[in-house]
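Researcher: Please translate sequence to structure tokens.
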Amino acid sequence: MIIGQTVDSATGRRAHGPLQSGIRLQRATDLIDPNQRYNSLILDRVCHIVRAHWDSFANRVSAWGWKIDAMKKLGFLSFGHWTPSSQSETRSGADALLQSIDLAIEAERLGMDGAYFRVHHFARQLASPFPLLAAIGARTRKIEIGTAVIDMRYENPHYMAEDAGAADLIAGGRLQLGISRGSPEQVIDGWRYFGHLPREGEDDAAMARRHTEEFLTLLGGKGFAKPNPRPMFPNPPGLLRLEPHSEGLRDRIWWGSASNATAEWAAKLGMNMQTSTLKFDETGEPLHIQQAAQIRAFRSAWKEAGHARTPRVSVSRSIFALVDARDHAYFGHERHEKDQIGFLDETTRAIFGRSYAAEPDVLIEQLRHDTAIAEADTLLLTVPNQLGVAYNVHVMESILTQIAPALGWR
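Model: Translation complete:
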């Protein structure tokens, strides 16, 4: 991590290279008065003190009006597309699943922090996520394993709580489950085929939120079912809960939010927040500015709710460093350098985020100006999974080695 900037002891001026030390401290207006002279040895000593006494130091620098930017967690996000085409490296459902496992293993080897997967029904993509998450959990040791997102219109909260608990125990408590109302699907009202119907006065979004609240309650682990007086097996005393129960999973649930209102709703319920490359266009501003405001609204609502822990926030981006001929062939001709506007339905105007594809030095400067990435603690890199495991390993490694250090993410 980084504290401020290196100061040349001879000139007293700030140099371009960061000090590798453990945390980045940045005053809201500027970092350090450029007229002040700091000896680099003194700064090294400060770095040592920060590492040794971080908790008390963090509280104190907040009182000074300094902003604390910790290094970001970096993960990949795969939609698990597959198509029976000779031009695809992922030609079947089996390919998509097995390559997802291989990619997570390779991501852990590289030092990535998370392996996340999108869930879509009635599509040649990844669907029921828990067998995949459990398999990855059994083959890895450190990497976070998550979703972004599971469509709660389709979910039975009770069955989902059992599946999630089992997968989390297999993974040793590494699940990070992103859930949401979901996006437009391949079929009309697909959740009806799963046996789910909105109650009177509900629409499908309200049904998804109701399923979510039931799911969160079940993850709390409190007993609710009256036991049979003549059970097949002995019961613990009192009302029974769903098993297996994984302690702590409730704190690792994220809500994929497309609006400021749902971000605030998620904060009140104690969920972390995910925001992707799509958001309802609520102000007409660029996506990253709207998302940065959304993140601040989420954190304000979290603070107002009085939760004890610190929430997490992730943003998703399509980012490609053009470092070899393959990169230039695949992404060197990208023309999505600006956000796009579209409609999710007859009335919902949405803004779709730009893609980033450039040589490393240009890419670094572009990403410096993405205010939503700056606000978030976790960045998910959307990967083109049909280009194969080897190429996506290259994509992640390029970001880890050539982009992340320059931006203070590593």
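Researcher: Any highlights?
Model: The radius of gyration is 23 Å.
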